[in-house]
Amino acid sequence: MPYQPVEAVFVVFYGLAAHKATYGRLSGGYSKDYLQLTQDEALRQALLRLFPSPTTADDSIPITYVWPNGEQSGFIKLKSADRPHLAWPFSEAPLPWKMSPAPSASGPETLLGDPSLTDQADATREYDKWVASGDDAYLVAVKLREEPDRLHVRTYVRGSANRLDYADVSHLPDDVRDLVESTTRTRAFAWATFDDGAMVPPGLAAAVEKLDENPSLLLVGPPGTGKTVLLEALVDFVTNPRQTIYFDPDANHGAWDVRSGGEPGKARSVVLHPSYQYDNLVVGLLPEPSESGGVGVRVSPGPLVSLAHYASENGRRALLVLDEFNRANAAAVLGDTLALLDKDKRGQAFIDLPYADMTIEVPNEFEANGTTTVPHSFTLPKDLWIVAAMNTSDRSVAPLDAALRRRFTIVEVPPDYGLLSERLGADEDLDLSADVAGWTVGHVGSLAVHLLRELNRRIDAVLGPDFRLGHSNFWHVGGPTVDDALLSLASAFDHRVVQSLRLSLQDDDGSLAAIFRAGSADQPTSRANSVATWVQPDPELNAFASDRLHFRDISTLNADQSLNELLAQARLK
Questions:
Q1: Is residue 84 reached through a cis peptide bond, with omega within 30 degrees of 0 on the bond before it?
Q2: Side-chain half-sphere CA neighbours of 408 within 13 A
Q3: Do residues 17 and 188 touch, judged by C-beta distance below 8 A?
Q4: Tens-of-pLDDT digits for all 573 residues of the chain?
Q5: DSSP letters of 223-281?
Q6: I need a surface site. Which of 178, 275, 374, 550 has the fewest CB within 10 A?
């Protein structure tokens, strides 16, 4: 069978949970016929897009697991403890994911071990032997673009102890290998989709899909949720096309082929501000010296006109990024080009650019169809993506009118707790009530995620969703030891969370007290070492003063006191 373009790849690290699921049913803990994925709305939406619609009440999607000379029925289960599953019939995991006493390059099994044991303790010892060898294994499922309900399954290995060189991760394309090796025992699942055969991370893939539907996209959300990171990823996606990846269903581990990507596109990023105008974005006049020694003027095309001219040549893609979109009068900045933004107007509707009696020349790098001269009858090509971003919590800037809003696909970018969990190596199922002496750095990461989620629940109730905190506030929490990681978390809480909210809510002690669990002035919290406490005024000032909320840095407390307050803020005690 010829190579086919890859549409998605799913990876599960071969940890104890994966071993128990794929080994087969045994009494005790070997009771699952599925690999549990992750609780991620982006993943759920991707599964619904990639595979046929669910056919049962529990949102199960029938699929077939495929490998060279074999296949196995299975299903994707969407409704299961809020986490999707890759599942199969009772005790019938796909063979490439199972153990064999004599694995070989011809497969299908890859993992070295005895698959015939009937006692769970013995089966677990087989896993322990694998771990003791020092090798890591990865269960991989590949979705091809032209196959709506099939997953091609393989197992890859990192390490040489078991002499499984034919299954080494070095056989994977670089992008896929990076994805595979991003999984660990504590972050056991990773996935990515592909655009025209090029790997695209999940958040970027969702944005590209929206841009394919409508080339005008507006990202909205609180600060620190990753809007700028996504904009940078889109710029990189357009200007540095990735290699396209293909897969041969009939080959075993050497099933991959990598081909060069397409032509690099052009991108420009603009940060709007109150002084930014139509002349800056679209077209304006600039002074220039004249031959007679005086000063003349020339037409200066802005980034919108330059990129539109470049993308007017077939097969070219361009991207215009408009960050801080609501910090200028966006409707005035876009002017008459606003009428060209709609998808059905791209390449169909035209306006007359200003200064029609003068020649408009774009820089040479934007040349298209053999010319740098821009026609005065101007349109926006369909391959020019326009992506804007704005912070919803900033109310001191210009609002967007309805005519502008309706031309953009508006996508909310909320705090991403799953991404933060992956970043911090957190497992939200860890028991945070356990004695801190038994904690790992992963416990601290889990506490950070719980804390952010709980703070945002209270902020949502008190102020509304636009004021939630982004996951970037805890992005750099960590350290070589648990004590270092806890100090890092306390410091981030003091200097990023508390200070940010205090600046946003000046003279609103009541809201701050509700968010930080300080009680009310009449019934203040009795919690020792609370980050926020009510202080009564001096009696001599009663006629003029009122109770005020005072703050302390919990990072200056001892480790136990600081941890207790962090747990209290996360409502874990």
A1: no
A2: 25
A3: yes
A4: 689 999 999 999 999 999 999 999 998 789 999 999 987 888 888 899 899 988 777 789 999 999 999 999 999 998 755 689 999 999 899 999 999 999 999 989 999 999 999 999 999 999 999 999 999 999 999 999 999 999 999 999 999 888 999 999 999 999 999 999 999 887 899 999 988 777 888 888 889 989 999 999 999 999 999 999 999 999 999 998 878 899 999 999 999 999 877 789 999 999 999 999 999 999 999 888 777 777 878 899 999 999 999 999 998 999 999 999 989 999 999 999 999 999 999 999 999 999 878 899 999 999 999 999 999 999 999 999 999 999 988 765 556 788 889 999 999 999 999 889 888 988 767 789 889 999 999 999 999 999 999 999 999 999 999 999 999 999 999 999 999 999 999 999 999 999 999 998 988 999 999 999 999 999 999 999 999 999 988 887 877 888 999 999 999 999 999 999 999 999 998
A5: TTSSHHHHHHHHHHHHHSPPPEEEE-TT-STT-EEEE------EEEEEE--TT--HHHH
A6: 275
The whole-angstrom separation of Cα 134 and Cα 363 is 56
Single-letter amino acid code for the residue at 28: G
Tokens at 175, concatenated = 């992008």
Looking up tokens 């705090």, which residue turns up?
415
pTM, two decimals, is 0.82
Distance CA 456, CA 468 (A): 5
User: Do 269 and 231 contact (CB within 8 A), yes or no?
Assistant: yes
Is the CB of residue 78 less than 8 Å from the CB of residue 44? yes
Q: Which long-range contacts (CB under 8 A, 24 or more apart) does 554-561 make?
A: 554/490, 554/493, 554/494, 554/529, 555/487, 555/490, 555/491, 555/493, 555/494, 555/495, 557/490, 557/529, 559/483, 559/486, 559/487, 561/528, 561/529
> What is the C-alpha to C-alpha distance for residues 273 and 309, in angstroms, rounded to an integer?
25
Report phi then psi at 272, rounded to 5.
-75, 150
Alpha carbon distance 295, 264 (integer Å): 38
Angstrom distance (rounded) from CA 514 to CA 498: 13
Six-digit token pair at 9? 């790849």
Those residues whose C-beta lies under 8 Å from the C-beta of residue 534, and which sit 6 or more positions away, are: 513, 518, 519, 520, 521, 524, 547, 548, 549, 550
Q: Are strands 150-158 and 136-144 parallel, antiparallel or unpaired?
A: antiparallel
Which of 247, 249, 190 minimizes the C-alpha distance to 46? 190
Calculate helix-pair angle for 41-50, 202-213, nearest 10 degrees.
50
* Phi, psi of 94, rounded to the nearest 5 degrees: -55, 135
